[in-house]
């Protein structure tokens, strides 16, 4: 990745049902790992394959995901459902994919389920937009965790932002590390990618490579079993 400071390219707004939807998620963010798992604002879970992985189609379709070619992407969609069911289906698919690549990032909020999860809003809320990510914390423990991961308070002290100088992979790594750390401390987190519906998932800027032949050693951020 480039050593230049983070300047992610915003995607253009589009028309939807007579209104303009402001694109806030960058194309390059979704293109970084071999496998990106995320959620749309309307509750769909999606899996993006940025390189061909053997058995991926079978693993995902058997878990209930629907394959789709979408603006140059091989996309798999899971419609909204109960959190526990989506959690279990995504878990089956993810662990199957991890047999082929460890370059997997999961920032989906639709798959986060735990029988012990308390009611109420998340302790941490990440919102991608404007080429960066804004984070709000509802507890002192959540604020301390963000500071441990290098997030700094904004001028109005109402949210946090990542430290300066991060490239795209650095930004993604900061979010996944903070979110994973939060779950180990019993803190809930929710990541909003700024994608209203599946049709708003941006086009790919990266060409898929040859099929993967075995596991890779790239650091990953797998979904936590709860």
Concise summary:
The protein has about 230 residues and is an alpha+beta fold. The chain has helices at about 25-30, 55-60, 85-95, 140-150, 170-185, and strands at about 15, 20, 35-40, 45-50, 65-70, 75-80, 105, 125-130, 130-135, 150-155, 160, 190. About 25% of the residues lie in helices and about 20% in strands.
Number of separate helices: 5
| Oligomeric state | single chain
Lateral strand order in the biggest sheet: 5-6-4-3-7
Provide the structure class: alpha+beta
Q: How many strand units?
A: 12
The geometry reads as: globular
Identify low-pLDDT runs.
Answer: 1-27, 208-226
Largest sheet: 5 strands, mixed
Give the helices and strands as they follow along the chain.
Answer: EEHEEHEEHEEEHEEHE
Strand content: 15-25%
| Gyration radius, in Å | 17 Å
Mean pLDDT, to the nearest integer, reads 78
What distance lies between the first and last C-alpha atoms, to the nearest angstrom? Answer: 33 Å
Helix content: 10-25%
């Amino acid at each position: 990745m480039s050593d230049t400071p983070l300047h992610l390219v915003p995607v253009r707004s589009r028309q939807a049902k007579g209104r303009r939807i402001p694109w806030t998620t960058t194309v390059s963010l979704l293109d970084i790992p071999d496998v990106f798992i995320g959620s749309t604002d309307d509750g769909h879970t999606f899996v993006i394959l940025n390189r061909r992985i053997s058995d991926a189609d079978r693993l995902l379709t058997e878990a209930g995901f629907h394959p789709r070619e979408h603006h140059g992407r091989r996309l798999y969609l899971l419609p909204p459902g109960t959190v526990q069911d989506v959690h279990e289906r995504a878990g089956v698919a993810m662990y199957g994919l991890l047999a082929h690549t460890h370059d997997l990032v999961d920032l989906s909020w639709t798959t986060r389920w735990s029988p012990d999860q308390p009611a109420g809003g998340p302790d941490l809320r990440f919102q991608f937009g404007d080429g960066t990510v804004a984070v709000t914390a509802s507890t002192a423990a959540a604020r301390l965790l963000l500071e441990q991961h290098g997030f700094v308070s904004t001028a109005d002290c109402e949210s946090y932002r990542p430290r300066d100088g991060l490239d795209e992979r650095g930004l993604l790594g900061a979010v996944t590390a903070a979110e994973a750390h939060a779950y180990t401390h019993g803190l809930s987190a929710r990541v909003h990618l700024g994608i209203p519906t599946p049709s708003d998932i941006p086009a790919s800027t990266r060409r898929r490579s040859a099929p993967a032949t075995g596991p890779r050693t790239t650091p990953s951020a797998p979904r936590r079993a709860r």
